[in-house]
Amino acid sequence: MAGLDGRGDVLARLRELPTASISDALDRIGIEGAAHGLSPLSNGFRAVGPAFTVRYAPVDGTAGGTVGDFLDDVPPGSVVVIGNEGRTDVTVWGGIMTETAAARGIAGTVIDGVCRDVSASLAHSYPLFSRGRFMRTGKDRVRLVAVGEPVTVSGVEIRTGTLVCADADGVVAVPAADAERIAETAVQIERVESDIVAAVRAGSSLRAAREKFGYHHLQTRRS
């Protein structure tokens, strides 16, 4: 996967960083990227990769509903991002989709909605991030209306190719054009926080360590 559109190096760097530091870096640069309200099925799950975006809408009476066929077109290493308007009353991801995605090397799935067949995700260690779990099928209740178009999750616009990073703390979206700068900033933030912890362990007060290493300015926007 070394060179998903030439982004192998920055993806490798982002994989080493927690979403907390990436979120802080986004704040510092002035980019909204933290998708509120999404959680992993397991705290050990982590997914990093370019977004493959999908959007659903309610069945409107003129066409039947279906879910999942788009998986045939998802490149390995991608993170599927499904926009379902935050609905929690019908699922748009289940066991067959997990089995297929895991077999095809898809990096993970982020759902603005809910999933089901949780045991399959856990058995395959396939990373799923959603607003919860619910067993009621979306078949004939929702319909696929767009693939590859931007989706908005908790006010954050995610486009095809946006770099999605997800772990136990949630999901952040990193615009591809800013990814190098965000990764570098996140590394700097990680370094400062490590220095603060080391200073405290060596006997410093937390207040003094934070002051010394500029903790209170880590998220200050800089041009």
Write a short abstract of this structure.
This protein is of the alpha/beta class. It has helices spanning 8-15, 19-29, 95-103, 118-124, 179-201, 206-213, and strands at 34-35, 39-40, 47-58, 79-83, 108-112, 128-130, 142-147, 151-153, 156-158, 163-167, 170-174. The radius of gyration is 19 Å and the shape is elongated.
List the helices and strands and how they pair.
Elements lengths: L7 H8 L3 H11 L4 E2 L3 E2 L6 E12 L20 E5 L11 H9 L4 E5 L5 H7 L3 E3 L11 E6 L3 E3 L2 E3 L4 E5 L2 E5 L4 H23 L4 H8 L10
Parallel strand pairs: 3-4, 4-5, 5-6
Antiparallel strand pairs: 1-11, 2-6, 3-7, 3-10, 8-9, 10-11
What does this structure look like?
It is a single chain. This protein is of the alpha/beta class and 223 residues long. It has a domain of 143 residues: Glucose Oxidase, domain 1 (3-Layer(bba) Sandwich), CATH 3.50.30. Helices cover 30% and strands 23% of the residues. Strands 1, 2, 3, 4, 5, 6, 7, 10 and 11 form a 9-stranded mixed sheet that branches. It has a two-stranded antiparallel ribbon with strand order 8-9. Helix 3 links the parallel strand 4 and strand 5. Helix 2 packs across helix 5, helix 3 packs parallel to helix 4 and helix 5 runs antiparallel to helix 6. The longest helix has 23 residues. It is elongated. The model has no long low-confidence stretch (mean pLDDT 91). Its cofactor is Mg(2+); a divalent metal cation.
Q: What labels would you give this structure?
A:
11 strands, two-stranded antiparallel ribbon, Glucose Oxidase, domain 1, 23% strand, 30% helix, alpha/beta, 223 residues
